[in-house]
Amino acid sequence: MVDRTRYEPCLIAFWLLGSVVIVITILALLSIAVPELSDMSHLALVATESGVIEAILLTMVAALVAVLFLVTFCTPLAYVLARSNSRWKWIVENLVDIPLVLPHTVAGLMVYLLFMSRGPIGAPLRSVGIVFEDAFLGIVVAMIFVSSPYYINAVREGFEKVPVHLENVARTLGATRFHAFRSITLPLSTRHLLSGIFLAWGRAVGEFAAVVMIAYFPMVVSTLIYQRFTTGGLAESRSVAFIMILICIGVFIVFRWITRAAGRHDHDRA
Amino acid sequence: MTMIELEQVSLALGEFSLCNVNLRIRKGEFLVLLGPSGAGKTVLLEVIAGLQAADSGKVTINQRDVSGVQPEYRGTALVYQDYSLFPHMTAAENIAYGLKIQGRPSQEITKRVDVLLTDFGISSLKNRYPGSMSGGEQQRVAIARALATDPSVLLLDEPFASLDPRSRDECIRVMQDLKETRSVTIVQVSHSGDDAYALADRIVVLINGRIAQTGNPDEVFCQPASPEIAQFTGMENIIPGIVTSDGSGRSRINIGSVAIPFPGTYQDGAGITIGIPARNMQILPEQPVSDDQGMTCIPCHVRRVTWGKDTATLKLEGQIPLTAVMRRTGYDRHIPRQGMHVYAVFKDTDVRILSGA
């Protein structure tokens, strides 16, 4: 049978409009990939630089720690938000979304004010040896702050899609609320959990403004690219950027694959 | 022995509410909760199961006040209308869920699951996921899962509502077996009279969160206690009128220019509502010759005939609008057609007093 939808003028027009963004994305990727791939030796040189490797590792590990924090502390929050009927829920929901609407420099300033060595959280923790300013933990905190809404909203949406009836049945079969959450709700939200993790991780890896305000050093990749752009010029920063693109695309592909395999029983797919 | 007792249970929950519900359910009883949608039937089940906390009142299960007890400690199993099977578990895993939580040894679990799969005739589904099962299959897995832990109370929320007629009959058979072979107390929400007739020891009619009537199926369907219940249970010809008493021990209800006799004495001038089941209405082509004092004959013409598989429903227009149901025999010569003039005939014993008595 002929797929008639392909020739509908309305859909063709929509494709044309939508293709603007797609074309820009492709051009943007090409503008970095083409010159880099045509000078592989320079690329290899940059990729093996200890400064670059350190920055990449630091970014990855910091983002991973930020995501682990979110999974531990924000999964429960997402669940209570999904299940609560409280009149005051909207206040918490709006608080969760605040980092989404703030300029990232503002978010960075907020994190800095709280966690700097003289800040209300930073000062007491500094006295026990925990430092945020220009330190690994500062990077992690900034990443957590800007990526939390992505994680919480994705996971909350997943929990909301699991019918309360399933939990109710589990409870009448003898499961405590926590057991019902762990054995029913959590496995049925796998896809949303993974997508929350991925979105938050991506946000954390890409964060520049918020991170740079509390920790210019040690340098995360975004900071390194900016620093090279301002000091060494286009070619210097472009190589680091290209390495980052390759890593991110790789992670993206792996994540897509895991999500597809893990979420086969998710409720909205059944 | 009383298994479940509700005392003055009230709960306001958005559009649903329960209002001073008092109910006692005997051990081993099959109780059907009947009522229009939004009457609070599901909420009542959830209150018994402990999934909703009542605003006031007391719930007792097996002589134990469970008002503050969490659902997992109540010994009540619940089957929802949508069956709510865990989609990430096979039939066997679904059934084993409660047993695993109880920490039974895995050998015992396997044996118990196999017995239940066989009992419900679903052994072939053992390793299948709910997504690949039909409604009837899912329902049987859901009931097997609910019974796995030997609950003292089984709560069923419209278990037949979304089944095709064949699966429904099959499932009613399963429930009848269950009733005969196990001592479990069953509370089933339904809105179908047929289900209730097939299964119920007793029916409780819930309307607007209040218990409107309690009784066996015949009592509820043939002697509804109010016009609302009559309407809900499908009684036709619900007509309000004024009583006139001639002092001879017979009363009549005046509806416009028609006077319908009915048994019993009622106060002259009282306003009452009567109901006449449509299947008790005889339709004759000619006025019958009879001196029966209790007979009413209303001339009317047929406004519409709605054909069913076994019956034809006639909408009649006369001094009062009436509905009659006639059995189809295959020839259907006796069934009048649209526009014909006929006589609707019924006896005083067919007249039910619904309110005002």
Descriptive labels:
heterodimer, A: 270 residues, mainly alpha, B: 357 residues, alpha+beta, OB fold (Dihydrolipoamide Acetyltransferase, E2P), 2 domains, 6-stranded mixed beta sheet, 8 helices, 20 strands, elongated
Structural class of chain A: mainly alpha
- Written as H for each helix and E for each strand, in order along the chain, the element string of chain A is HHHHHHHHHHHHH
Largest interface (CB within 8 Å) is between: A-B, 21 and 31 residues
Quickly count the domains of chain B.
2
Number of strand segments of chain A: 0
Distance between the termini of chain B: 34 Å
Structural class call of chain B reads alpha+beta
Q: Which strand-content bin applies to the residues of chain A?
A: under 5%
Total beta strand runs of chain B: 20
CATH-assigned fold name of the largest domain in chain B: Rossmann fold
- Quaternary state reads heterodimer
Shape of chain A from CA axes? globular
Briefly summarize what is shown.
The complex is a heterodimer of chains A (270) and B (357). Chain A is mostly helical and 270 residues long. Chain A is built from 13 helices and no strands.
Give a written overview of the molecule.
The complex is a heterodimer of chains A (270) and B (357). Chain A is 79% helix and 0% strand. Chain A is globular and about 65 Å long. The model of chain A has no long low-confidence stretch (mean pLDDT 92). Chain B has 357 residues and is of the alpha+beta class. Chain B folds into 2 domains: 226 residues, P-loop containing nucleotide triphosphate hydrolases (Rossmann fold), CATH 3.40.50.300; 121 residues, OB fold (Dihydrolipoamide Acetyltransferase, E2P) (Beta Barrel), CATH 2.40.50. Chain B contains 8 helices and 20 strands. In chain B, helix 2 packs across helix 3. The model of chain B has no long low-confidence stretch (mean pLDDT 89). Classes of the chains: A mainly alpha (270), B alpha+beta (357). Chains A and B meet through helix 8 and helix 9 of A and strand 6 and helix 2 of B.
